[in-house]
Amino acid sequence: MSASTPAGRRQIHLAAHFPGVNSTTVWRDPGSRSQIDFSSFQHLARTAERGRFDFFFLAEGLRLRERKGRIHDLDVVGRPESLTVLNALAAVTEHLGLAATVNATFNEPYELARRFATLDHLSGGRAAWNIVTSSDAFTGENFRRGGYLDRADRYTRAAEFVEVARALWDSWPSGGTPRTVRHSGPQFDITARATLPHSPQVHPVLIQAGDSDEGREFAARTADIVFSRHGTPEAGRTFHADVKGRLARYGRTPDQLKILPAATVVLGDSEADAQERAAHIRRQQVSPQTAIATLENVWGRDLTGYDPDGPLPDVEPVPDGELAQGWAHMADRFGIAARWRSLAEEKHLSIRELAVELTARQSFIGTPASVAAAMDEHVQTDAADGFILVPHLTPGGLDEFVDRVVPLLQERGVLRTEYQGRTLRDHLGLPAPRQEESA
Ligand SMILES: Cc1cc2nc3c(=O)[nH]c(=O)nc-3n(C[C@H](O)[C@H](O)[C@H](O)COP(=O)(O)O)c2cc1C
To answer: Which long-range contacts (CB under 8 A, 24 or more apart) does 62-71 make?
Structure first.
């Protein structure tokens, strides 16, 4: 499928992020249902397919967020393993891409290449892998290796990981016999034969989600999609230009990499109605425990004695405080605390109101018509190639979007009314993977 309509308007790529344990999900809302029950995954996936989305997306957290022996309130619901869920979804969807976030720091390439090839076979070519590296020191404690790798080492390992996985995917042509893959590098020393012939896409679609210079370079060299945090038009355009500008170095063209920022949508019957709903959702997203935890990440000390609806703590941060695992190396705690204090004073904010202010991530607020127009504008002006929509409710959080905004995008000619191809690469308009590198 081409990237543009005959009239020259670029197509919007949409993905559905299953709302899991993050600061967006309001799982105590009466409209929320289970985040584990298969019916929830099925509901969101089928909604996305009804809206002709490109793919369904699962994030990954390999450890519960524990603090002072307690599990953070958003995590008590738990989270199943992604590839298992996606294999089950392959059976109840027909066209939708199925993307799993899986860590390259704590897994092994032989096993993971095999599992993604299996998903690609079972789904008829709809698998995608979001390659993450994990910045959490405490996640490493769950694994034999222990600890965690420095950023540079994480991307070194990820690059070699993907190289080995690619060699395995390429090594057994359909109708042929498997070649032996021999790889000897600093991270992996492997002599292996793949257990499966070429899957429909040969390589699953590769997604990257890190934001550092190393992460962007890795994306330019390796990824088909970048999952970005840069959702505003200005930040989106800067990011878009930066990452797409790196592609030529690897012999790639700008349309071979799709940049999809995370985005949230709040709809209303009028602009005022939408703003009111947005404010209500933001407050629901930040529980008292989340508000205190947000500050403890910076203060590095126990703040549970403070009233979430009261003023900011009068004590100073602890320089090397390590209350929140994974934030152990935060630089400039004092500077951040000072900035947060002056913001709270200026706007008369309580701890919870400040946390709401800091974590609010609503990208599109408005009527269905104004949201459709704004999304279209983003894509036509190179702020994004589409969006990974992160609803705040499980599993019905995209129902309204699909019912009310999707038809308007289709009327504008920027969203397909029917799927044209079979595979996720077809939906994304991506070329076949380059196999010569690892063959
Ligand atoms: C939009 C976005 C989504 C991410 N999602 C996940 C995730 O689901 N699981 C995970 O372990 N890491 C996730 N990460 C973390 C990255 O994989 C990476 O470990 C982290 O951003 C540090 O790398 P960087 O310094 O290049 O940004 C995400 C990062 C970004 C920017």
So the answer is: 62/103, 62/106, 62/134, 62/139, 62/142, 63/136, 63/138, 63/139, 63/141, 63/142, 65/21, 65/325, 66/138, 66/325, 67/293, 67/296, 67/323, 67/324, 67/325, 68/302, 68/304, 68/323
